[in-house]
């Protein structure tokens, strides 16, 4: 429908909604995230169109859930990334202002500073932002040649064997939180591949400001442990709940 509109009336980006019914999905954790104005306007326009098509129904947006495809254009490079809404909201704020303090961003996004700092790591690792002085973030328009070396030195100084063990324990706890959602997926859809489970978790669960992302290898280890514990079965490349759990 948007393609039929005159170019000047089209939204600046495409928006696709996935409708979740409370009857078939466990309660989703509510997390505060204040989106930039242009994003909220597009979502409000989408909701109005939905209400016209579906009488007596409306949309209750979960701002912290979903996936955003971004192209970040800098002076000497363009990055194409798929990120969570909070990551996208962070970098969009740097369009109009090249330097932000952690406190300013925390206030603008309504995200706790401690959680927001963890999310800033993505943009630091991508070489899009730099933190200098501590607590102040600035856009890097031209890529720093020694950026990778600096990241390695910081990581090696800050993390020892005990820290790595502690992180592993924390990751296991986070994965356990996802178990409710994995069970709901398999109850509704019966069988899913590792890749499908990971993509659904990435969209619906792992995108909030308070949640740390996991990669597909970590998820596979977790699911295989559930298989060994007889809480899942695995055959033909897909996972299922044991019949006694359905």
TrEMBL record:
The keyword Cell inner membrane does not apply. One of its GO terms (molecular function) is ubiquitin protein ligase binding. It comes from the Eukaryota. PROSITE patterns: CULLIN_2. One of its GO terms (cellular component) is anaphase-promoting complex. Belongs to the cullin family. This is Anaphase-promoting complex subunit 2. It comes from Micrurus corallinus. The lineage of its organism: Eukaryota, Metazoa, Chordata, Craniata, Vertebrata.
């Amino acid at each position: 429908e948007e393609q039929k509109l005159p170019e000047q009336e089209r939204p600046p980006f495409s928006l696709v909604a996935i409708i979740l019914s409370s009857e078939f999905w466990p309660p989703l954790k509510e997390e505060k995230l204040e989106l930039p104005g242009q994003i909220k306007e597009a979502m409000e326009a989408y909701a109005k169109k939905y209400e016209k098509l579906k009488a007596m129904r409306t949309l209750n947006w979960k701002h912290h859930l979903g996936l955003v495809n971004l192209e970040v254009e800098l002076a000497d490079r363009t990055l194409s990334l798929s990120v969570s809404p909070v990551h996208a909201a962070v970098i969009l704020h740097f369009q109009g202002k090249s330097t932000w303090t952690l406190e300013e961003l925390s206030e603008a996004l309504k995200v706790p500073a401690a959680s927001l700092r963890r999310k800033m790591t993505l943009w630091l690792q991508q070489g899009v932002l730099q933190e200098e002085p501590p607590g102040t973030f600035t856009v890097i328009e031209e890529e720093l040649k020694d950026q990778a070396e600096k990241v390695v030195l910081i990581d090696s100084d800050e993390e020892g064997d005990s820290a790595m063990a502690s992180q592993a324990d924390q990751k296991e706890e986070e994965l356990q939180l996802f178990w409710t959602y994995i069970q709901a997926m398999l109850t509704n859809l019966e069988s899913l591949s590792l890749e499908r489970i990971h993509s659904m978790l990435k969209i619906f669960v792992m995108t909030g400001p308070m949640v740390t992302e996991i990669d597909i290898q970590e998820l596979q280890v977790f699911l295989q442990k559930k298989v060994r514990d007889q809480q899942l079965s695995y055959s033909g490349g897909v996972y299922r709940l044991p019949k006694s759990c359905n």
